[in-house]
């Protein structure tokens, strides 16, 4: 992997200075965007009345203390900690612990957690099974689905009594946006939510009840194992054999090592680590919800996160990071941007890497990934594209920022960062999945504590009372005889 070279303007800026400047700026801008008084936190009183729009926009599916997205304000919280601050001070491993257990670890807890993550990196049996399939002919997200199912060799919550979540009569609710902060929804009807409150005798903190259960061990196996699967898929697609993990490396460094076969520089490892932190959890997004829906049937966690991988693969969700690079390549020179934007918007096409169901302000993850992309912008693989990207951002925000609250989302700059780290384009979305595994497992694990099967309704708009017509009496023109 070629060493990233910094551009002239970033010449004397170290990575840590870039990170510090970006995080300070992000916290300042987020703080400016909405007065603190808007935060009502836990003061939600049931019943809650919400407007529900198409695509379940605005609907509340459950309660959660894993993470919070404030779309109006443009900030993202993991278990009470601002993700921007976690980028500055934490690591992906620590964030995974935080999401799963609910608290930052003590030194001893973290050491034991890390030991288990390192131990679970080794998947020779799963890789052997995976390599008997034509991986090179599959999209890497399809290969990742396969690998995740094969990872379910012996353990699953369904197979292990000790790890099975408790049956429970209670249901609970979660929300990304508390009602007082709701931005206007697109739906017409209003729904009243009346969930029974979380019973006082139920555990509020997963750590208290689940540390030793097979369930949480399975979450760790998945968080650790998905990196090994992803790196192996990348290598096999490149006609190379998978290589063993290096136990001496941290999670991000080992992932790069297993993909490239070269130990990354501390700077490269730190940049990927931040990208993993930023993608680890994001409220009730489509893939998290998909994973939770499958888990709510008491299917095993492997089936559940496989559904998450499937949902993430779509271009409207995690697949957008690949589409952004293809879009920047198609635009080419920054001088083409203006005309391209006019044509795209005139044709009512979406600009990839922009817009978000929840954020009506700047996506905080883009606030960090943008400066990281700038830091790497001297790298030959993204030098031209970075200029095109910043020009595109200016044009799209000028056209749609004020009018439709459309700003860059997490996917806009993440692809540039991955490209500069030497990660092949088709592997961008799997890298997203590697990180999001922490959020999927944390939220599924939390939901199963008080599980109730998801089962929304549809409004039937079809005909009633039709009489069955035998096939031989059906008219090809559509008029039945
Ligand atoms: N470019 C141009 N216009 C846009 C964009 C965009 N990227 N996103 C939304 N709009 C416009 C729509 O055309 C629509 O306009 P209208 O009201 O005049 O018809 C309005 O904004 C609302 O758009 P919806 O598609 O209804 O918004 P929704 O909340 O359903 O979709 C989504 C959100 C899917 C992210 C959308 O913004 C999009 O398709 N973006 C591009 C793909 C992308 O970058 N996805 C990654 C999202 S981040 C993630 O999932 C990790």
Q: CATH topology of the largest domain, anyone?
A: Citrate Synthase, domain 1
Flag low-confidence runs: 1-10, 35-40, 154-182, 197-212
- Number-wise, the strands total 5
Instruction: State the order of secondary-structure elements, H for helix, E for strand.
Output: HEEEEHHHHHEHHHHHHHHHHHH
> What is the residue-averaged pLDDT?
86
Which class do the helix and strand fractions yield?
Answer: mainly alpha
For the record, what CATH class of the largest domain applies? Mainly Alpha
Helix percent reads: 40-55%
Bound ligand species = acetyl coenzyme *A
Give the oligomeric state of the chains in this entry, treating copies of one chain as homo and distinct chains as hetero: single chain
Count of helical segments?
18
Distance between the termini: 70 Å
**Main sheet summary:** 3 strands, antiparallel
CATH superfamily of the largest domain: Citrate Synthase, domain 1
Architecture per CATH nomenclature, i.e. the level-2 architecture of the largest domain = Orthogonal Bundle
| Strand arrangement in the largest pleated sheet | 2-3-4
Tell me what portion of residues adopts beta-strand conformation.
Answer: under 5%
The rough form would be described as: globular
* Total of domains: 2
Radius of gyration: 23 Å
Question: What is shown here, in short?
Answer:
Helix content is 48%, strand content 4%. The protein is mainly alpha-helical and 481 residues long. The site of acetyl coenzyme *A has 19 residues, from helix 16 and helix 17.
């Amino acid at each position: 992997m070629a060493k990233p070279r910094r551009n002239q303007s970033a010449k004397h800026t170290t990575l840590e200075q870039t990170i510090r400047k970006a995080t300070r700026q992000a916290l300042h801008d987020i703080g400016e965007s909405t007065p603190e008084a808007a935060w009502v936190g836990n003061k939600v009183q049931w019943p809650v009345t919400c407007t529900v729009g198409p695509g379940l926009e605005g609907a509340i599916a459950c309660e959660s203390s894993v993470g919070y997205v404030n779309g109006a304000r443009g900030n993202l919280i993991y278990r009470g900690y601002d993700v921007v601050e976690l980028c500055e001070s934490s690591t992906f491993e620590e964030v995974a612990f935080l999401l799963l257990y609910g608290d930052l670890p003590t030194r001893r807890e973290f050491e034991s957690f890390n030991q288990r993550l390192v131990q679970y990196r080794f998947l020779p049996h799963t890789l052997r099974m995976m390599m008997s399939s034509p991986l090179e002919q599959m999209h890497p997200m399809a290969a990742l689905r396969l690998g995740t199912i094969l990872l379910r060799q012996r353990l699953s919550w369904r197979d292990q009594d000790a790890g099975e979540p408790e049956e429970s009569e209670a249901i609970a609710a979660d929300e990304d946006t508390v009602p007082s902060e709701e931005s206007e929804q697109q739906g017409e009807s209003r729904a009243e939510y009346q969930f029974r409150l979380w019973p006082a005798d139920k555990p509020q903190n997963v750590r208290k009840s689940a540390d030793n259960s097979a369930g949480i061990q399975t979450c760790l196996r998945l968080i650790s194992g998905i990196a090994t699967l992803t790196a192996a898929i990348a290598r096999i697609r490149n006609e190379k054999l998978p290589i063993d993990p290096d136990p001496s490396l941290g999670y991000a460094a080992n992932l790069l090592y297993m993909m490239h076969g070269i130990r990354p520089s501390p700077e490269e490892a730190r940049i990927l680590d931040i990208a993993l932190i930023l993608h680890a959890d994001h409220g009730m997004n489509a893939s998290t919800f998909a994973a939770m829906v499958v888990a709510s049937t008491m299917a095993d966690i492997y089936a559940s996160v496989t559904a998450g991988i499937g949902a993430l693969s779509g271009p409207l969700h995690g697949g957008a990071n690949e589409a952004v690079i293809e879009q920047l390549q198609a635009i080419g020179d920054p001088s083409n941007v203006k005309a391209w934007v006019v044509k795209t918007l005139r044709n009512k096409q979406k600009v990839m890497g922009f817009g978000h169901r929840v954020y009506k302000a700047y996506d905080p993850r883009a606030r960090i990934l943008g400066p990281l992309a700038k830091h790497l912008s001297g790298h030959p693989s993204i030098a031209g594209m970075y200029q095109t990207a910043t020009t595109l951002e200016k044009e799209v925000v000028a056209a749609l920022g004020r009018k439709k609250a459309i700003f860059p989302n997490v996917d806009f700059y993440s692809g540039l960062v991955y490209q500069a780290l030497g990660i092949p384009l088709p592997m961008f979305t799997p890298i997203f999945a590697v990180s999001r595994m922490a959020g999927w497992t944390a939220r599924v694990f939390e939901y199963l504590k008080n599980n109730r099967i998801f089962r929304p309704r549809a409004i039937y708009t079809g005909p009633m009372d039709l009489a069955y017509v035998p096939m031989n009496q059906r008219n090809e023109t559509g008029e039945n005889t």
